[in-house]
TrEMBL record:
<comment type="subunit">
    <text>Homodimer.</text>
</comment>
<comment type="similarity">
    <text>Belongs to the class-II pyridoxal-phosphate-dependent aminotransferase family. Histidinol-phosphate aminotransferase subfamily.</text>
</comment>
<keyword id="KW-0808">Transferase</keyword>
<protein>
    <recommendedName>
        <fullName>Histidinol-phosphate aminotransferase</fullName>
        <ecNumber>2.6.1.9</ecNumber>
    </recommendedName>
</protein>
<dbReference type="InterPro" id="IPR015424">
    <property type="entry name" value="PyrdxlP-dep_Trfase"/>
</dbReference>
<keyword id="KW-0663">Pyridoxal phosphate</keyword>
<dbReference type="InterPro" id="IPR050106">
    <property type="entry name" value="HistidinolP_aminotransfase"/>
</dbReference>
<dbReference type="InterPro" id="IPR015421">
    <property type="entry name" value="PyrdxlP-dep_Trfase_major"/>
</dbReference>
<comment type="pathway">
    <text>Amino-acid biosynthesis; L-histidine biosynthesis; L-histidine from 5-phospho-alpha-D-ribose 1-diphosphate: step 7/9.</text>
</comment>
<dbReference type="InterPro" id="IPR005861">
    <property type="entry name" value="HisP_aminotrans"/>
</dbReference>
<dbReference type="InterPro" id="IPR015422">
    <property type="entry name" value="PyrdxlP-dep_Trfase_small"/>
</dbReference>
<dbReference type="Pfam" id="PF00155">
    <property type="entry name" value="Aminotran_1_2"/>
</dbReference>
<keyword id="KW-0028">Amino-acid biosynthesis</keyword>
<feature type="modified residue" description="N6-(pyridoxal phosphate)lysine">
    <location>
        <position position="209"/>
    </location>
</feature>
<keyword id="KW-0368">Histidine biosynthesis</keyword>
<feature type="domain" description="Aminotransferase class I/classII large">
    <location>
        <begin position="24"/>
        <end position="346"/>
    </location>
</feature>
<dbReference type="InterPro" id="IPR004839">
    <property type="entry name" value="Aminotransferase_I/II_large"/>
</dbReference>
Length: 354
């Protein structure tokens, strides 16, 4: 007897960090920004005429696309926008990874990549990072169906220099190379300039981290006009109006406020560097994070102990207990300076107890 259950797409979904809602919590588990969005966002909301919400939004999200293009010195046909970079990445996977050859990405990276590959039935191979969480470049030289690189990588925080990326791309001119720059604004450089040289490189960025707009869901991709047109064809084949009217206007206002962005970014980076010194003092080791989080392991105390004890104090960090290579690491998002001072005090207490 046949059953509808025989035809289900069964999949183990990606599990995001928890979103507890406790008044006294210190939430350092999903790499959100501890500071509010630009005051220009408040202005948009204050002046918004809700009557506009009767109408469907612009399918092309042109105001937002144009603002991102202008900010990055690109033409508007080189910019794609989506509902967070998760949406952008998922569409990129669907659009570009249709070969029978496996796509490649590291064993330790954003753990949504393998979920999308499973969902869209894309073959994939995960290449182990070396013991310092660095890419082994030669692993990416062979034939493949495409490449995804988070740079800086997550959850390690480690960044690849442009010449390493260039080398990988030079060996892969016949497939699309996606560079996921979710955390790039906390590092020293973007690979954006590579899209001028390579028509097969797609740079993906997000408003969720450096622009404090995780709740608004805005992400974008930049690449050759051909790549962007192909993504738009796929996107318009299942949803004509992905971006709300509000997210378009809020996104455009936020990206134009460069001064505020620079100030907030500097605050997060300064606190990150302070936290690194404190973690070292407490006996943690970590790669040189260029993100808004630190991926750290204590020299003697298991990660689970810190995770559980912090949780009791309503301090939330992230741990990837299912992956034996990184089970003792904590991924600690950078909060306000005050929040990080409390975190350090609590870590110190836990260390003394064990
Ligand atoms: N890429 C990486 C590497 C991430 O860590 C995240 C955040 N979970 C994303 C993409 C997606 O972010 P968003 O959908 O909020 O833009």
């Amino acid at each position: 007897m046949s059953s509808w259950k025989d035809n289900l797409r069964t999949i183990e979904p990606y599990v995001p960090g928890e979103q507890p809602d406790l008044p006294d919590m210190i939430k350092l588990n999903t790499n959100e920004n501890p500071y509010p969005p630009s005051p220009k966002v408040q202005e948009v909301l204050d002046q918004y005429d809700i009557n506009a919400l009767r109408l469907y939004p612009d399918p092309n999200s042109q105001h937002l696309v144009d603002a991102i293009a202008e900010y990055n010195g690109l033409n508007s046909d080189q910019v794609f926008v989506g509902v967070g970079s998760d949406d952008v990445l998922a569409i990129a996977f669907m659009t570009f990874f249709n070969s029978k050859k496996p796509i490649l990405f590291p064993d330790i990276t954003y753990s949504f990549y393998d979920v999308w590959a499973e969902l869209f039935q894309i073959p994939y191979v995960q290449k182990p990072l070396d013991d310092h969480f660095e890419f082994v470049r030669s692993d990416y030289y062979g034939e493949n169906g495409g490449i995804v690189i988070a740079n800086p990588n997550a959850p390690t925080g480690v960044v690849q220099e442009l010449d390493a990326l260039r080398d990988i791309i030079d060996h892969n001119r016949d497939v699309v190379v996606i560079i996921d720059e979710a955390y790039v604004d906390f590092s020293d450089h973007s690979a954006l300039e590579l899209i001028k040289e390579y028509d097969n490189v797609l740079i993906v960025q997000t408003y969720s981290k450096s622009r404090s707009l995780a709740g608004m869901r805005i992400g974008h991709a930049m690449g050759s006009a051909e790549l962007i047109a192909a993504m738009n064809d796929v996107r318009f084949s299942y949803n004509s109006y992905p971006m709300t009217r509000l997210s378009v206007e809020i996104g455009a206002a936020a990206i134009r406020d460069k001064a505020y962005f620079e100030e907030m970014r500097k605050r997060v980076v300064d606190t990150r560097e302070w936290t690194k010194k404190e973690l070292t003092r407490l006996g943690f080791t970590f790669g040189d994070s260029k993100t808004n989080f630190i991926f750290a392991k204590h020299k003697t105390i298991p990660g689970e102990v810190f995770f559980d004890e912090l949780r009791k104090k309503h301090i939330f960090v992230r741990r990837f207990g299912n992956n034996p290579r990184i089970k003792d690491y904590l991924r600690i998002s950078i909060g306000t300076q005050k929040e990080m001072e409390i975190l350090v005090q609590e870590l110190e207490k836990i260390e003394k107890m064990h």
